[in-house]
Amino acid sequence: QQLAQLQKEKSEILKNLALYYFTFVDVMEFKDHVCELLNTIDVCQVFFDITVNFDLTKNYLDLIITYTTLMILLSRIEERKAIIGLYNYAHEMTHGASDREYPRLGQMIVDYENPLKKMMEEFVPHSKSLSDALISLQMVYPRRNLSADQWRNAQLLSLISAPSTMLNPAQSDTMPCEYLSLDAMEKWIIFGFILCHGILNSDATALNLWKLALQSSSCLALFRDEVFHIHKAAEDLFVNIRGYNKRINDIRECKEAAVSHAGSMHRERRKFLRSALKELATVLSDQPGLLGPKALFVFMALSFARDEIIWLLRHADNMPKKSADDFIDKHIAELIFYMEELRAHVRKYGPVMQRYYVQYLSGFDAVVLNELVQNLSVCPEDESIIMSSFVNTMTSLSVKQVEDGEVFDFRGMRLDWFRLQAYTSVSKASLSLADHRELGKMMNTIIFHTKMVDSLVEMLVETSDLSIFCFYSRAFEKMFQQCLELPSQSRYSIAFPLLCTHFMSCTHELCPEERHHIGDRSLSLCNMFLDEMAKQARNLITDICTEQCTLSDQLLPKHCAKTISQAVNKKSKKQTGKKGEPEREKPGVESMRKNRLVVTNLDKLHTALSELCFSINYVPNMVVWEHTFTPREYLTSHLEIRFTKSIVGMTMYNQATQEIAKPSELLTSVRAYMTVLQSIENYVQIDITRVFNNVLLQQTQHLDSHGEPTITSLYTNWYLETLLRQVSNGHIAYFPAMKAFVNLPTENELTFNAEEYSDISEMRALSELLGPYGMKFLSESLMWHISSQVAELKKLVVENVEVLTQMRTSFDKPDQMAALFKRLSSVDSVLKRMTIIGVILSFRSLAQEALRDVLSYHIPFLVSSIEDFKDHIPRETDMKVAMNVYELSSAAGLPCEIDPALVVALSSQKSENISPEEEYKIACLLMVFVAVSLPTLASNVMSQYSPAIEGHCNNIHCLAKAINQIAAALFTIHKGSIEDRLKEFLALASSSLLKIGQETDKTTTRNRESVYLLLDMIVQESPFLTMDLLESCFPYVLLRNAYHAVYKQSVTSSA
Fold it and tell me: How far apart are the first and last CA of the chain?
């Protein structure tokens, strides 16, 4: 019943478990082949010595370790029995019989429940061969497993300790053993002696090797991050063997030693290797030619460092926490960095090494080998043919092949040597390698030399591959964070992204499905590291910018007021302020150093930045899994984002209180910021101009590329909603004499001083910040407000259309005009709206003038060409062409007879249900309405003209600009004559104003003279009207008297 459910699912079970089941079958077949091969080796009584037949011995030991680790890993799969049982049951249900491999596979799973115990029994017949191979390590392993002090005393890896021998080739009788992985040797020794444990009781050498390995580590890597705790496992195995109490005591002593001393020993080794690799990398970068004779040193250094890093990684994850200090290395980045530097030298100067070793092989190795072969007492034919082919291959080499870029391939030669080792290592060989050790050692050296010619990349992977980090990603990220936090180590942080380039070397063609998984991990880690480095650099740069902005802020003119007042008080001997008030530090004090040991915050920031930038600038790009990463681009993009945020942030715009920074102060801060950013080019090869162009051009638009508001939108908003709104509320007036808007004394004081935001210097600063694009946007926003006012004015005209039509034709009949005027409605509203339009246009002319000044400074030749264009438009030019020229001129800040922005704004509001003739009539009547309404201004108290400001406090002087510009724009749109319409306006306005000259009522004529002056202003402002024309309809004597009266009035009122 319980199995009935499986009946339904049998096909699914077969499909899903087949991969696992047949993997177990593969393991079983592999085990069969290994056992068969080991038996063959025993029968042939093969001679093993790592120092003579290196390849044969190494591959033999590797095979045993692979077999052992595979069986241990198999025993760690908890569901192994369930998988095999389920699969077989489903197979029986489907095919009516068990799978043919099932009985043997089941037996293997049961047998290898405790794999090492089973294998100890299995290896009894193989112990002679295995122990011989292991004992041959006595010449290699103890020499490699030395303390840092012994390395230091021997001046290991130093090229400059003996200058006289600097050019001599680095030689050894056991070349391939010099860079053999210590990790691999420890696995061979520990697992090997567990399998043939009997030798530990009879051979002191074996025991010493085993104890030395047990003292060096607490755990071994089985595969990637799967580890094996040696001491406990060995003790558990030996505890059941009689007479092994001594071995168990040895294991316990070694465990104590490993726990208490191994950490510090390896820490000291890493410390030594840091300085040794640094020296090696520095010398080789200066003299790359030394890579030839000293190549062995490079691969030894890489192998030693790799072993230490892997040891640390493995133990840091699997050690008791109480001794954690020895397993946290904050300087690990430095060691990895020097490894990467050596790897880069080997890749870069590969041809140098090839030239050296091609000559070495043909000029020295071939000759010596030939002599050795000639002196052999016995040399069978097969062996002789192989030896001769070696000599011939080497003799035929020449430097020209390297220069021609020929691809070398000595794999065949190396394989032949491997075969020859097998032929000559069996017991009955006619040429026994055991009796001709010199031949073995010479051939091992030659094989190393061939690898220097054709396998440099493979050698780098063999000696310095750190792809293991892929499986320790938490530890990897932690090391990176520690590296960034320590200023002295941040210059080595590039080592971490560079390590991601190793990851793909841990993939295998037998398991292609994990390529994507490992590739993605390498990409995401590399991206994360580079992003973090760029963020860190960006934060440092931001801090420096903040400091520099503070310093440049101290130099703003507003801060000198206190100094000036103190100086004035000293002269007048006035004692102001409390005694003992601390004197304000003058800008520049921070640069005075009494002692060079004093380190300021800026010094620390610059040091940290230069260290980190060294790392970012270390490689132009790196390739990780066929993706190219460019570290500098990360920094550039982060700087762009931060610069954008900072500029907008420095405007200090507060929507609630409507506060904003003065343009000149923002400009000072932006320039300070830019100066710091420009200095980054001294550290990193990035194009800061590109950053400026991207960011500052975006700031001239309404929104940036992320859809966020820019300084253009913030300032436009502020000037329209805050400054100009207060003008129309009567709290601020435009003073033509000062070319600025100024606060008027009112009951409710404003929170800002209008003059400080609208004078010439501020408007120029605004133009610098916003540029021509931003100022165009500001203009368009102003025009939109004007067009909405004009739309309202048109509505008022439509309300009074009949009266205005009659007034237009009867301006010479004063009585009729007076009667008609009384019938007009909304006269004040018309004047108020026209005044608002005038104020906006006055502000725009300030902005345009400032833009012209700025552009004349930056691009004087271009501006003068545009001026020429504008000044030489022939009168008969088509209006469309003229408008194009005006648009160009306006963009450069030049004033135009007809404002193109205003024309565009007003032409966009044509009504659909009104004919063009009607629209034209409304435009004409609007001018009539304004003209006949002017006299009412005389009764307003605020309409008094002030000579000091060259205007009126209620801004009616701005009407001159409004009337001229609106007329020019409207009659350009409706294709009427601007001059004729303005003449008509002048006739109507002058007759209306002359009428109030005859009135006797004091209140209605209170500021009559001040209003008369408006006519003069309108003519002065207009490019279409002349004084002669004004004289014909308004006597100049009246104007002269009016000026005299207002100036006299201002003198008496001020007195």
Answer: 119
- What sign results for the dihedral spanned by CA atoms 433, 436, 438, 443? negative
pLDDT of 313 strictly over 60: yes
* Cα Dmax for the chain: 147
One-character DSSP codes across 555-614: TSGGGHHHHHHHHHHHHTT---S-TTPPPPPPTTGGG--S-TT---HHHHHHHHHHHHHH
In sequence order, which residues have a C-beta less than 8 Å from that of residue 232 and are 6 or more positions away? Answer: none
List, for residues 851-869, the tens digit of each pLDDT value. Answer: 999 999 999 999 999 999 9
Task: Tell me the pLDDT band of 1052, cut-offs 50, 70 and 90.
Answer: confident
Instruction: Round to whole Å and give the CA distance between 589 and 591.
Output: 5
The amino acid occupying position 33 is H
Question: What's at 784, amino acid-wise?
Answer: W
Pairing verdict, β 732-735 and 740-743: antiparallel
Tokens, residue 728: 């129309």
Name the residue with tokens 């696992």: 20
Q: What are phi and psi of 657, to 5 degrees?
A: -95, -5
Three-state helix/strand/coil letters over 741-773? EEECCCCCCCCCCCHHHHCHHHHHHHHHHHHHH
Up-side HSE of residue 446: CA atoms within 13 Å toward CB?
30
The owner of tokens 């019943």 is 1
Looking at every residue in the chain, the average pLDDT score rounds to 93
Q: Annotate 217-240 with b (16+ C-beta within 10 A) or e (fewer).
A: bbbbbbeebebbebbebbbebbee
How far apart CA 502 and CA 809 sit, in angstroms, is 94
pLDDT tens for 680-739 read 999 999 999 999 999 999 999 999 999 999 999 999 999 999 999 999 998 999 999 999
Ordered DSSP codes for 104-151: HHHHHHHHTTSHHHHHHHHTTTTHHHHHHHHHGGGGTHHHHS--HHHH
Tens of pLDDT, residues 269-306: 999 999 999 999 999 999 999 999 999 999 999 999 99
CB atoms within 10 A of CB 995: 15
User: How far is Cα 134 from Cα 510, in angstroms, rounded to an integer?
Assistant: 30
pLDDT digit string, tens, across residues 182-197 = 999 999 999 999 999 9
CA–CA gap between residue 395 and residue 1006 (Å, rounded): 119
Best CA proximity match to 1011, nearest among 995, 1029, 1025: 995
Joined tokens for residue 10: 């049998």
Structural contact between residues 835 and 719, judged by C-beta atoms closer than 8 angstroms: no
How do residues 29-74 score in pLDDT, each as one tens digit? Answer: 999 999 999 999 999 999 999 999 999 999 999 999 999 999 999 9
- Long-range contacts of the stretch 701-707 (C-beta < 8 A, 24+): 701/773, 701/774, 701/777, 702/777, 704/644, 706/644
Task: Determine the residue type at 241.
Answer: I
Distance CA 315, CA 262 (A): 10
User: Could you say which DSSP state residue 361 is in?
Assistant: I
Q: Tell me if 517 sits within 8 A of 572, measured CB to CB.
A: no
Q: CB neighbours of 163 closer than 8 A, spacing ≥ 6?
A: none
Residue 578 confidence (pLDDT) above 60: no
Q: What is the mean pLDDT of residues 549-575?
A: 84
Residue pair 765/667 in contact by the 8 Å Cβ criterion? yes
Q: Which amino acid is at 75?
A: S
Q: Where are the alpha helices (DSSP H) in 349-491?
A: 350-360, 366-374, 381-395, 399-403, 411-425, 437-454, 456-464, 473-485
The pLDDT of 533-557, averaged and rounded, is 95
Confidence class of residue 791 from pLDDT cuts 50, 70 and 90?
very high
Residue 537 has pLDDT above 90, yes or no: yes
Report how far Cα 246 is from the mean position of its chain's Cα atoms: 61
Give the residues across from 742 on adjacent strands.
733
Number of residues written out for the chain: 1055
Residue 320 banded pLDDT, cuts 50, 70, 90: low
